[in-house]
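Protocol step 4 of 6: structure prediction from sequence.
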Amino acid sequence: MTGPWNTATPAVITLPSGRRIRGRGRRHGLPEGQPSTPAVHLTGRRPPAPPWESVWIPWRDFWLPADPGEATRTLRTAYDRAGDERVEVCCGGGVGRTGTALSALCVVEGMNPEEAVTWVRRNHHPRAVEVPWQRRFVRQVAGTAGPGRP
């Protein structure tokens, strides 16, 4: 266990529940400050392994995860770990796929999908969740709430 993000760490947002997540674009380089533990990579090709724990969700730019069910399970695990670890989600540019994943995490904590997208656009990036099928994925996450989940 490493502890949560420091609020001053670049690209870290605080979800309504108080959990902190870093959302970033891999093309922009690693922000200064604390390293993540773990990172969730949302890319079409497996990225080089960083020197910390990471998981890869195959997800092409402007599309959906190759396996939406597995992606949802991985994001739920990332959300659970964000309570006491420094979790980050990242794609190439840090906008569409990252914004979609952050919206899904907001849904996991109880927001309705439309509210989640609006919240992420306001708090992460104004163009987050770039295409209609990414919005559908956020709605799908809401439909897969399990026992004890909103």
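Step 5 (inspection) to follow. The first strand starts at residue 12 and ends at 14.
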